[in-house]
Design a protein that fits this description.
308 residues, 1% strand, globular, 2 strands, single chain, mainly alpha, 55% helix
């Protein structure tokens, strides 16, 4: 798609990566930019993004939000993906790119990812005994947005993907994260930030966490039909009015579950134009990756690994 080239040209010419032109550089858009640029063979820019993340890393191995916001450290899993997968991304995508990978992570990046994974393994969300007023299993430890709080869907999904990228798919924490994500899926499909039923009231699903969860749970057995119901939820929800990041996460989740939508290219192209005008690096990177569908190396990485 011509619009994807426009998105990649924007990402490639940046010296830092932001949520929008009006914000300051941040870890999340930088990590996604590294993944997207590497996936399309733009190695030099991808390497610059990875080095930016390395400069952001705290002494304990975690990665915060921005240079002046060293915490909370939920972007640590994303940084691991950028450090671990951009070399692997190029290798797995070499057929579609047509060039040999030239951006293998440096020793410093490998050391950075090792320290980041060590930090992830020291952090767990707060647990508690299950109570009648909550619908999810509060005894399962995943990862929190903020250290010292409960486990939620998105940081747990990112940490699970990071552990798989680090070769720790069978680690007990990875297994717990997969169990937590499946538990947080609503029986009617989809998930939200991580609650299912509160005070007897079933909560509504959201597109973004559902897409990320389906990406992280690629290949997992679906004994209770929650993944199938979540696929149906995204199929019935995504459309031309879906916002850029949600559309991208939704399509990535569907691709990881081997599902496509006929009009997705049209919707992605329309979103790129708006994100480009806003200077939204995060959205452009996600849209570029989503445009690859099942060829997206992040999807291929997820589907090629056994479920934890």
């Amino acid at each position: 798609m011509k619009s994807v080239d426009r998105a990649l040209d924007f990402l490639e010419c940046q010296t830092d990566w932001r949520y929008s032109a009006r914000t300051t550089p941040a870890a999340e858009p930088t990590a996604w930019a590294a993944l997207a640029l590497a996936a399309y063979g733009r190695h030099e820019a991808a390497a610059r993004a990875r080095v930016w993340l390395l400069d952001l890393q705290n002494t304990n191995g975690s990665v915060g939000i921005r240079k002046d916001e060293p915490a909370p450290c939920w972007p640590t899993g994303l940084a691991v993906l950028a450090w671990k997968l951009t070399g692997a991304v190029s290798a797995t995508n070499i057929k579609s790119i047509g060039t040999a990978p030239s951006n293998a992570p440096s020793w410093a990046e490998q050391e950075g990812s090792r320290r980041a994974v060590e930090w992830l393994l020291t952090i767990a969300g707060e647990t508690s005994a299950n109570a009648q007023y909550t619908g999810h299993d509060t005894s399962i430890a995943g990862w929190p947005w903020v250290v010292g709080t409960h486990s939620w869907v998105e940081p747990s999904a990112l940490a699970l993907l990071a552990l798989r990228a680090a070769g720790l798919a069978e680690h007990p924490r990875a297994r717990d994260a997969a169990r937590l994500l499946y538990d947080r899926l609503l029986s009617t499909g989809g998930c939200n930030y991580g609650n299912t039923i509160v005070l007897g009231q079933a909560l509504l699903p959201h597109v973004e966490p559902t897409g990320l969860t389906l990406l992280a749970l690629a290949g997992r057995p679906d004994a209770q039909g929650r993944i199938a119901a979540s696929i149906a939820y995204l199929q019935g929800t995504l459309g031309p009015e879906t916002t850029p990041a949600s559309l991208a996460y939704g399509l990535l989740g569907l691709a990881a579950q081997r599902t496509t939508l006929a009009q997705s290219d049209e919707w992605l192209s329309a979103c790129v134009e708006g994100s480009y005008r806003r200077g939204a690096s995060l959205e452009l990177a996600l849209l570029a990756l989503a445009a690859m569908g099942s060829d997206c190396p992040l999807v291929a990485f997820s589907t090629n690994h056994q479920a934890a």
